[in-house]
Design goal:
The complex is a heterodimer of chains A (161) and B (420). Chain A is mainly alpha-helical and 161 residues long. Chain A folds into two domains: 3-119, Flagellar protein FliS (Four Helix Bundle (Hemerythrin (Met), subunit A), Up-down Bundle), CATH 1.20.120.340; 131-161, no CATH class. Chain A has helices at residues 3-11, 15-34, 39-58, 65-89, 93-119; strands at residues 136-143, 146-151. A two-stranded antiparallel ribbon of chain A has the order 1-2. Chain A has five helices and two strands, in the order αααααββ. The two termini of chain B are 43 Å apart. Chain B has three domains: 43-134 and 330-377, f41 fragment of flagellin, N-terminal domain, CATH 1.20.1330.10; 140-283, no CATH class; 380-419, no CATH class. By secondary structure, chain B is of the alpha+beta class. A six-stranded mixed beta sheet of chain B has the order 3-9-8-7-6-5, with no helix packed on it. In chain B, strands 4-13-10-11-12 form a five-stranded antiparallel beta sheet, with no helix packed on it. Chain B has helices spanning 7-32, 43-97, 104-127, 332-364, 381-397, 399-405, 411-419, and strands at 129-130, 133-134, 146-149, 161-164, 177-179, 190-192, 198-200, 206-214, 221-225, 237-242, 249-254, 260-262, 276-280, 286-290, 298-302. Classes of the chains: A mainly alpha (161), B alpha+beta (420). Chains A and B meet through α1, α2, α3, α4 and α5 of A and α1, α2, α3, α4 and α5 of B.
Chain lengths: 161, 420
Amino acid sequence: MDNTNYTAKISNADPLGLVIITYELILTNIAEALEGGDPANIKKSLNKSRQFLADLISALDMSHEISKSLMSVYIYANKLLIESELKASGGRFSEMKKPLTEASTILSDLLKSWKTLEADENIAKGEKIMPDALKVYAGLTYKGGKLEEFVDYDEKRGYKA
Amino acid sequence: MRINNNIPALQVFDSVRSANRLVSGSMLRLSSGYKINSARDDAAGLAISNKMRMQINGLEMASRNSMDGISLVQTADGALTEVHNMLQRMRELAVMAANDTMVDDDRQLIQDEVDQLLREIDEISMRTEFNGMKLFGPKANQAHGFSFFTDDHAPSRIMSGIRVSEGFPEGNFNNISITQLVGPGALDINVQLAAGATFNLVGGGTVPVTNVTTTPGSNEVIIELGPPFDGEYAVMQVDLRLNAAGTGYEIRVPDPAGGWQLVDADNPLPATFPIDMNINYRDHSAMVIQIGASRGMEMIIRIPQLNAATLGLTGMDYTSGHFFQPGSTANPIIMIDDAIAHVSAVRSQLGAYQNRLESTVISLDITNENMAQALSRIIDTDMAREMTFFTQNSILSQAGISIMAQANQRPQQILALVGQ
């Protein structure tokens, strides 16, 4: 997982963008676990995906009806992730795949809807959550044969405090 | 002698270190997300924003704790699902072995599989952890107060604990007795800790106290119970405390609706009785989950010790057949049925914990009590598909609200997690 890439994305996200990033982080971690390999890494990926999921849950505003639907889906996904962890800790990686794939499917399905909202220009997305975050210029610098993102560290004086 | 320094390596190390410093520094600033980064910028503003952050974090933390609690319960339940399946398989085998068309060799094969299954149950019990804490293993954190131990007396399934909060007198347990406190819920307890004392179970039957160990100067008392140990254990916890006037004791039992319910204050207890005492009828120490932002808003989760021995499944012999002979006490089918019933009971208790935790997450950040309705719990794949489909469409049809529903998310958390 490329951390710098995510750091810049996250700090420049609007609320919807952050939700989408979180989903992507969960799905990336699930995919990493599904690839197999070192049991310790599998465990770590599963654990991490659960932490991101927990963040989605604790960020729900329960005064909206839809939050409850989201929460039951999240809690079920959490259960699937835990089931996978249990199978993995018992060394049964082949059995781990079923609940894990299921969790991935559920969350990918929801992600589709969020992405549809993101693509719709008529919907108000809200302000950037971190208005004073560092600006990121994508594709303006060229380094080592690839286009890079450039993070402007000089512009914000507040960060020098 | 010349000390050889690996200069290039040190240089690399140093640059790595400074890069790390840079990253962690910018992460810190990025993840604080506030305009005020130090008191120099705006002293009063910093104080206010710190205070607000403290409250927000408290609530957020409580919500996370509840989510951790849900995960803990789900972990325990997931492990018990596996135990359940193994017990079902053992039952199948028991039925098979009871059939006289089986020859001895067949039965031996069955016995081998059963032994293997029992080992796996023990292994699950030892292996199932949440955050490094063993969920079904012997509990290590029984440091306070009384603890009843029955591990050595298989096939007992119940281990009880008494927790004494403070002011417990040293030694001299002969004077301590609670006799026949009768109240709603058929509460009927008799605890005598004198030599030759017995422990009366709620559903009837007594268990002798075989040993009492005390540690002078501490509140800890370990009481060992002798066999046989079987019976009802419907009451989990009893709270006894001196009433406001100091003339007697008030007894409370957990109210199913939450909180404590006063049982009966008409029966004053001997004055030597400890002031504040909890009696637990279960073989597990409490795990406390902080479910609110303030002190005292906690929930207690208890998970019993579960393994082949505490399920009463040790020494099962499938090789002899004839399981239905009258008076046979070692009938595997009956033993397994008991074990399955016990696991089911524990699982339904776990379900109750999860309900409570879920409604906590829901009502944490809202003041309207009506909102704290139960969630529709998804139990299988079909339901999950259905619910996902429904939610997918709700997100689209209520676009603006959907974004708001999930809008409490803050980049700091995600940044911190990404950085780990």
